[in-house]
């Protein structure tokens, strides 16, 4: 991004002024700097390659043929329609085919895709597709359950509603028993 396109602290000051605030008052004086830093963190997923994070290894995976599931992975993202936060939990699982990945890498994968402007549906399938591409497992399942502040704080004001999305790839699509097992493991 060129300097001409970069959103700066000056722009955040202008936003505060456009809302009717005085960006120079003591409580807001440091806000443009803090907000710029926060948005850099909240969108840091653009600077990370999910493929590089998912370093697969075969040691320990040669005879393992059951589901591997990590539940309650935190999701903090912003919807691309209103830039409003959405947050919740993800469950990611896979059935290995000779390769496994460190369990913390599943959490990092969710974090990378959630730290981009998103819609929950796309984020869910991005997580599943990345895992499928790198590990080439027999199956991948992802379930994401989030609350969306764009729905809770404006418009319909659906307080406490959760949106649940899922992606089932590989053997989780045709194999009802495996799908049922994954969903049972994913359930809170």
Automatic annotation (TrEMBL):
Describe which pathway this protein belongs to, using the record's wording: Cofactor biosynthesis; 7,8-dihydroneopterin triphosphate biosynthesis; 7,8-dihydroneopterin triphosphate from GTP: step 1/1
Statement: the UniProt record of this protein carries the keyword GTP-binding: yes
Question: Any idea which GO molecular function terms this record carries?
Answer: GTP cyclohydrolase I activity
Keyword terms: GTP-binding, Hydrolase, Metal-binding, Nucleotide-binding, One-carbon metabolism, Zinc
- Its domain of life reads Bacteria
Reactions that this protein is recorded to catalyse: GTP + H2O = 7,8-dihydroneopterin 3'-triphosphate + formate + H(+)
For this protein, the record's PROSITE patterns field holds:
GTP_CYCLOHYDROL_1_1, GTP_CYCLOHYDROL_1_2
Annotated positions binding Zn(2+): 79, 82, 150
Give the EC class as a word: hydrolase
UniProt-listed Enzyme Commission number(s): 3.5.4.16
Family membership:
Belongs to the GTP cyclohydrolase I family.
Q: What is this protein called?
A: GTP cyclohydrolase 1
The species this protein was found in: Massilia consociata
The organism's taxonomy opens as:
Bacteria, Pseudomonadati, Pseudomonadota, Betaproteobacteria, Burkholderiales
| Gene that encodes it | folE
């Amino acid at each position: 991004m060129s300097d001409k396109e970069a959103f700066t602290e000056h722009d955040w000051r202008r936003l505060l002024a456009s809302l009717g605030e005085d960006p120079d008052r003591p409580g807001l004086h440091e806000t443009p700097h803090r907000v710029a830093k926060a948005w850099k963190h909240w969108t840091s997923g653009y600077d990370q390659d999910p493929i590089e994070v998912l370093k697969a290894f075969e040691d320990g995976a040669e005879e393992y043929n059951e589901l591997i599931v990590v539940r309650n992975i935190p999701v903090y993202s912003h919807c691309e329609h209103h830039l409003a936060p959405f947050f919740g939990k993800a469950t990611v699982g896979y059935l290995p085919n000779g390769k496994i990945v460190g369990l913390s890498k599943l959490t990092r994968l969710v974090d990378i895709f959630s730290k981009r402007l998103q819609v929950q549906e796309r984020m869910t399938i991005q997580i599943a597709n990345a895992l499928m591409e790198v590990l080439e497992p027999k199956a991948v399942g992802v379930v994401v359950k989030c609350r969306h502040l764009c729905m809770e704080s404006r418009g319909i004001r659906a307080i406490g509603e959760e949106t649940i999305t899922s992606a089932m790839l590989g053997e989780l699509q045709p194999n009802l028993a495996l799908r049922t097992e994954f969903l049972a493991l994913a359930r809170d």
